[in-house]
Amino acid sequence: MMPMPTLKILLIEDNPGDARLIREMLLEARSIKFDLKIVDRLAPGLDYLGREAVDVLLADLSLPDSFGLETLITIHRKFPAVPIVVLTGLDDERQGLTAVQAGAQDYLVKGQVESQLLVRAVRYAIERKRIAAELTLEQARLRAILDSMGEGVIYHEAFESKYINQALSDMTGYAPDEYSGYLDLLRSERETPRDMGVLYEQIEDAIEHAGIWRGEKRLRRKDGSEFDAGLTCTPVVSPDEHILGAVTIIRDISQEKDLQAQKSRFVANASHELRTPLTNMKTTVYLMRRQPEKTPEHLDTLEFVVDRMRGLVEDLLDVTRFERGKLNLHQEYVTFQDLIKEVVQLQRAEAGKKHITLSNDLCSDPLTICADKRRIVQVITNLVINAVNYTPEHGNILVQLSSDPAGYAVVRVQDSGIGIPPEALSKIFSPFFRVNEGGVVGTGLGLTITKEIVELHGGNIEVESEFGKGAAFIVRLQLATVEA
Ligand code: ADP
User: Is the beta carbon of 252 within 6 A of some atom in ligand 1?
Assistant: First the structure.
């Protein structure tokens, strides 16, 4: 037989007769070994609990220094882990029940207790407390898991939320205690409460019959901003097959949607950009047949169009290479001043056609970068060509090179042109984005590619512009440390 453990029992009882009776009943029970401490007030009881680990507490709630439920609440608040059996008078059985609701494990009515019953109450109280503690731990574990998930989670019963996790709170801006209803708080501006009612019916129907509901919904955050969400709702079923409630997982899919939209836009734009020159070619060929005497002129047009198409296809290929991470850099040590001088020299003729002054201002200390020379030439060329394109006649363009204390070479291409409207600044590097479609021919891919190349080299690019007065593009590339 296993050795019987000694139970440490604290009895708080101000009536010496009742206390003696309890001691005798415990002694009478041969099935437990115990170590009983008796105090007659709450204060020494709390003291004792603070010093000793007690297996179970027997307490009369009516004491000289504390009365009724208050006694229990004080003990429970200070020592939530101690199992408690409340002793009530014959005339006050209701207090026993209330005490159990307030955290006691059991109650006994004085005068109706006998040894067997007392021992059983003590044992059950300990066991119940253990199970409750395990449940609390399990709940805490589940909560920690749910709270560490990236997706938002709502558990609801009859479309009233009972729990939301941290991710949902982060996603929507509502703290768990502010959250109410099911998705009502998150209802988009576009929808009415009636629409939500219809949605709830659909969800209820689907989870009951199909066991799952999936959908997309636009949701509103506390700050009023909205986002696209993917929702999956599954029922929580009781052992008797009754739907208790449902768990909804909420994912912010706005980025996915943006990407999808960007892809569709890309394909649409690319096809459009290719169709325009093709139509142009077709017309030119038609004209060549009808006006053979103008063939040389038409051939020039054709050559121009073919070059433009080739440029576009090159750009498209570059963009897709970036997307697939396929672009290989052939890096070598390059003296930045030489590279910039080369580009400026080459573009001076173009600038000259518009009487634009293209000058450079390069620091005298040679700056060396480790880079794919051809690609960096492409970057500076794109920026200078844009500056020429978007600067009216007689303007100025200045290409500056300096270094910053963080160890970067800084190139600034500044023009005195039309500038960029503030609302376009954040979009300027997106594929096919162009401020105004008329005027300058272009694809809207130049800056996308430029930025990709710069970032692939570990650098960054920024734009500054005062609309109507010019624009500046600033490229930063890390300086190479070359051994002397
Ligand atoms: P593209 O020049 O072929 O249109 P880019 O990607 O190079 O494409 O540029 C995107 C848009 O950014 C241009 O259409 C133009 O509206 C604007 N932009 C670029 N550079 C400048 C500049 N230096 N000044 C004013 N606007 C510019």
Answer: no
Q: HEC profile for 270-335?
A: HHHHHHHHHHHHHHHHHHHHHCHHHHHHHHHHHHHHHHHHHHHHHHHHHHHHHHCCCCCCCEEEEE
Is the Cβ atom of 390 under 6 angstroms away from ligand 1? yes
The angle that helices 336-353 and 373-389 make with each other, rounded to 10 degrees, is 30
Residues 90 and 18: beta-carbon distance below 8 Å: no
Write the pLDDT tens digit of every residue in 209-235: 999 999 999 999 999 999 999 999 999
Nearest CA to ligand 1 atom 25: 419
Other C-beta atoms lying within 10 Å of the C-beta of residue 339? 20
470 in contact with ligand 1, CB cutoff 6 A: no
How far apart CA 476 and CA 380 sit, in angstroms, is 12
Q: What is the pLDDT of residues 327-385, one digit of tens each?
A: 788 999 999 999 999 999 999 999 999 999 999 999 999 999 999 999 999 999 999 99
